[in-house]
């Protein structure tokens, strides 16, 4: 390669990295906003469980942009929510649980070139990542509350979050069209 080709490659890499950073930041912000401002506290859980639209956005991001951006959006978007909304003790757990959840969603939905376009595979991704989320938050509550019974009250709320997250199946095709314009 000549000097000119190297310079063009370097400029394209910097532009791609900057664009990637901006897109990832926007996806994190969208998950945070969906979690922070569009939520309902549940009266059924001892810890005041929460149902929010951050899941719809996380699922859509993971189906559309894949496992890396899904992991980043879930970990940072929902972890930031915990820090800024008084759930600070939950933040490290949420960071790990939601990061892995986004990674699972993106990995499964984009497996073998499916590109998040198969409704059945996307539902499978929600089920598998949902099992991870429910188990992760159950163990988190065991650690935070020191018993094995109390966390059971959070399971219905977590299942409700997954059911609401199914709306991502309707949102994903539209977001994919927008992504293709970028």
Automatic annotation (TrEMBL):
<feature type="transmembrane region" description="Helical">
    <location>
        <begin position="159"/>
        <end position="175"/>
    </location>
</feature>
<dbReference type="GO" id="GO:0016020">
    <property type="term" value="C:membrane"/>
</dbReference>
<feature type="transmembrane region" description="Helical">
    <location>
        <begin position="21"/>
        <end position="40"/>
    </location>
</feature>
<protein>
    <submittedName>
        <fullName>ECF transporter S component</fullName>
    </submittedName>
</protein>
<feature type="transmembrane region" description="Helical">
    <location>
        <begin position="46"/>
        <end position="65"/>
    </location>
</feature>
<keyword id="KW-0472">Membrane</keyword>
<dbReference type="InterPro" id="IPR009825">
    <property type="entry name" value="ECF_substrate-spec-like"/>
</dbReference>
<keyword id="KW-1133">Transmembrane helix</keyword>
<feature type="transmembrane region" description="Helical">
    <location>
        <begin position="95"/>
        <end position="112"/>
    </location>
</feature>
<feature type="transmembrane region" description="Helical">
    <location>
        <begin position="119"/>
        <end position="139"/>
    </location>
</feature>
<dbReference type="Pfam" id="PF07155">
    <property type="entry name" value="ECF-ribofla_trS"/>
</dbReference>
<keyword id="KW-0812">Transmembrane</keyword>
